[in-house]
Amino acid sequence: MEETPLLTVQMLGNEKVIVREFPDPEPKGSLVVVKIMSSAICGSEMGAYRGPKQMDHNGGHEASGIVWKTDKPKYVKEGDRVVLYAQSHCGRCQHCRAGYWILCQNPSPKRYPGNHSQYVLLDEELCLPLPEDVSFEIGALLGDAMGTPYHAIRRLGINAIDIVLICGQGPIGLAATLICKFFNAQVIAVDINDYRLERAKDIGADYIFNPQMDNVLKAVRIITGGIGVDKAIDCTGKAEGELLALEAVKRCGKMAFIGENQGVTINPSNHLIRKDLDVIGSWYFNAAEYDDLVRIIRRGVPIEKLITHQFTLTEAQSAFETFASGKAVKVLLKPWGD
After folding, report:
1. CA geometry: angle at 151 spanning 149 and 156, to 5°?
2. CB 188 within 8 Å of CB 206
3. 1 belongs to a structural domain
4. Terminus of the chain with fewer CB atoms < 10 Å: N or C?
5. Contact 38, 333 (CB under 8 A)
6. Torsional sign, CA 323, 324, 328, 329
7. C-alpha span between 189 and 84 (Å, rounded)
8. Element (H, E) at 199
9. CA distance 10 to 58
10. 196 - beta bridge partners?
11. Strand partners, 332
């Protein structure tokens, strides 16, 4: 019987992707083959999607699946349901020894050929257990989509007495809104995309504002009695969102940068020093926080509301176009159909 070719997405740049065949990956040592059941598109992939350069494969890094083939595993077995942790790590550097994989100084080779594939080869340590009562679709969101905002929210200590400003209501910002509402905080959601503002309202944001139409700082002063928000999170990665967060947070408040940005001009005296502000940068999440994410799901946080579209792998071009349109939140690729 003729073998069916294995399929993966290849990023061509200039808003084009194709689905191509790739060699059957084989396990070796701690490297295992995972059959991908659900893979989510991330906003961080838009640079490669819109840029001019072609990639060898794809940058997919949010996925769940089934351990399919193993060689000499220590921690997993064939048939295990897993969530794939995105950040490779060496396990030996100072940060890895402290359990801070996300700051690894010598990350091991990346997975092959990227999670937007029928199968992927990666180290077994990156396979986190997916409970039977959590679907593969939700599992695909337990990494970057939920883990990234949760890591920042946990570090900020957000709780039920806080008023929180969240700038940007893309997938990460909307997940941040969901998690903050889980902790019973009041949420002020800000975005220039009205579609995503409506999604924020649907999942529980107490206030929604579009800074192209609304005076957000004035609204914050009214809501907080002139004090400012207790905590602020920027998920935009844009100067406008970052500065708004810094200006809206109260004296002795806390603010987190999540959105990636290579440069913004701030006023250290007014934004930081004279406000005695605590500011953190926060990137991805530690594997030790994964159990918390599962507990949050089991407590009923409706993360499934973030899933707006699902496509087969062969519909990858339509999937990326839909995500890039701004009229979607989480777009899933299903390598094996429904």
Report:
1. 95
2. yes
3. no
4. N
5. yes
6. positive
7. 30
8. helix 194-202
9. 5
10. none
11. 40, 310
Which tokens sit at 147?
């883990």
User: How does DSSP assign 58-90, residue by residue?
Assistant: ----EEEEEEEE-SS-SS--TT-EEEE-S----
**How many whole angstroms separate alpha carbon 226 and alpha carbon 111?**
50
- Let me know whether 191 and 277 are in one domain: yes
Evaluate whether 197 touches 206 at the Cβ level (below 8 Å).
Answer: no
247 lies in a domain? yes
Name the residue range of residue 253's domain.
149-281
Task: Kindly state whether residues 65 and 115 are assigned to the same domain.
Answer: yes
- As given in the structure block, the two tokens for residue 162 are 């806080």
pLDDT for residue 100: 86
Bridging pattern class, strands 16-22 and 6-13: antiparallel
pLDDT computed for residue 239 by the predictor: 92
Query: Backbone dihedral region of 130: left (phi > 0), alpha (psi from -120 to 50 degrees) or beta?
Result: beta
| Domain count of the fold of the chain | 2
Query: 290-298 and 144-156 helices cross at what angle (nearest 10)?
Result: 100
Contact 188, 170 (CB under 8 A): no
For residue 34, which phi and psi values (nearest 5 degrees)? -115, 130
- Here the tokens at position 170 are 């893309």
